[in-house]
Amino acid sequence: MLALVFYVSSCHKHDFDFYDVEGNGYRYSDLEGRYQIVNYWAIWCAPCKLEIPELQALHDDYDNVSVFGVNFDHPEPQIMSEQVKLMKIGFPTYRKDPSNVLGIKTPEVLPTTLVFGPDRELLATLVGPQTKKSLLAVIQEN
């Protein structure tokens, strides 16, 4: 029975490309055709706190845009989950830093927001707090 449970668990694990802090799985293939916004934030970053509502509005208001957060400090999942709640983040937060998978360097300045096009091509790396309007401008020019 244990072998079967392990087998099912390991098969299920490979169904997804990445997981959020809540344990939800995602496939990059499911994001094709959508803009993906990846925002690096930290609990101690004051400008990050200012832009979270803007990112949330973008995530909530546009079907062709998916916003994902990355906790720059990478705390343990329980602490990260608490920090997500404190920051009032309603969009998914990567469980692990996706920089290697996305083919980017981990940002050194926060906040940093990456805008990927529908074909997963990096369109822009934006440093500093963004607004819904500034992000839509990048999307609309591409």
Structure commentary:
This protein is an alpha+beta fold. It has a single domain (34-141), classed as Glutaredoxin (3-Layer(aba) Sandwich). The protein is built from six helices and six strands. It has helices at residues 2-13, 28-31, 46-61, 77-86, 99-102, 132-141; strands at 18-19, 25-26, 35-41, 65-71, 112-116, 122-127. Strands 4-3-5-6 form a four-stranded mixed beta sheet, with helices on one face. It has a two-stranded antiparallel ribbon with strand order 1-2.
Task: Summarize it.
The protein is of the alpha+beta class. It contains six helices and six strands.
Helicity range: 25-40%
Q: Tally the beta strands.
A: 6
Terminal Cα span? 52 Å
Global morphology: globular
CATH architecture: 3-Layer(aba) Sandwich
Helical region count?
A: 6
Query: How many separate structural domains?
Result: 1
CATH fourth-tier homologous superfamily: Glutaredoxin
Write the layout of secondary structure elements.
Blueprint: H1 2-13, E1 18-19, E2 25-26, H2 28-31, E3 35-41, H3 46-61, E4 65-71, H4 77-86, H5 99-102, E5 112-116, E6 122-127, H6 132-141
Give descriptors for this structure.
Glutaredoxin; alpha+beta; 142 residues; two-stranded antiparallel sheet; 39% helix; 4-stranded mixed β-sheet
